[in-house]
Specification:
This protein is about 35% helix and about 15% strand. By secondary structure, the protein is an alpha/beta fold. It has 2 domains: about 100 residues, Enolase-like, N-terminal domain (Enolase-like, domain 1), CATH 3.30.390; about 260 residues, Enolase-like C-terminal domain (TIM Barrel), CATH 3.20.20.120. The longest helix is centred in the N-terminal third of the chain and has 21 residues. The two termini are about 40 Å apart.
Length: about 400
Amino acid sequence: MRDYSKESQIRATERNVEITGLETCVIEGNFDWNIVEIHTDAGVIGIGESYRGGAIAELMHYIEDVLIGENPLDVERLFRLMVQELSGHGGTTGKVVTAASGIEIALWDTAGKLLGVPVYQLLGGKYRDAVRIYCDCHAGEAYSVEHGSTDYSDAYAPAAYAETAEEVIEQGFTALKFDLDTPIDNDPDPVNGRLSNAAIEHKVETVAAIRDAIGDRIDLAFDCHWDYNLESGKRLARKLEPYDLMWLEDVLPPENTRAQRELARSTSVPLATGENRFRVHEFAELISEFGVDILTPDTSTCGGLAETKAIANRAEEQYIPVSPHNVCSPIGTMANVHLGAAVPNFDVLEYHALEVDWWDDLLTRSDPLIEDGYIEVPEAPGLGVELDKDVAEPRNR
């Protein structure tokens, strides 16, 4: 077995730092946000975030003993060490990589603080001073509850989508996305992934209503959440070609790259996918076979900042833009901002917490993170943000 653990390494005394432990918390937002802190003997604490969901914090604590005594500046080596040590808990994909992703982000924050530079500098430098944000929206009352969606038919009326779109545009966003999968998709059969004519017509009416409300100058995308079969995906995409979409996301189940490529070749609508894949290897065929127009890896899932940058590099070789999936708290979101600063083919970043009115309060800063649809790339060391524990603790699950 390869050994990624610490060997005798020569480095300057001021960079001879050791990890002393880690702490986790799960904040109940619109999703469960898995937050992790890395503690060091230099008194520096780094913060990161893994994708939502259960068992992530437990996996982080399982790996804690392996990290103690290691130098946090060796970020990429430690990521490989974590994946190796966790491989018995699910191979080298899935939740084990997700847990390692949040720690990897916290290691970059730690390294930036120790060296006195922002994370984007460690990732290779800056291409842009601010990252454009697209707002993931939900029509009417569709997501006005804590978990999941309501089943109110009015929430899925085209007029409700259009009204929400206008409200979001007034907040300064120049790009937005809606979910296009609705309860009507389950009629007449809830499991075969085939859309009826009525379901497709409802989607077309929804897209038309939003486009009419916001005009042609606003970027508009839709998410299908892997619901449809290839035949229905083709029919739907062709029907939406007149509406100049930014992209149509996750039309097909994520496992079959050949089917995704077939869909891409059948329509002029840009297709986006990628949030269900892990590490650069799972993206390789999708990129090389041109099965996607916009790649959407999730940094807090697929391996962290370095791995996502490697994925973006592969995409750049094929002239494919990258727009990360992001349902994180402000911590994970800011990690993506640093990635956006350092990646030339970065396009827009998802914001998925419009209904969480205390989202900004999680940070120890007075100004909103998002202003006029952009997040400024910070110049402070590390990620450039800190969690306000007085706000986080009462929401810690």
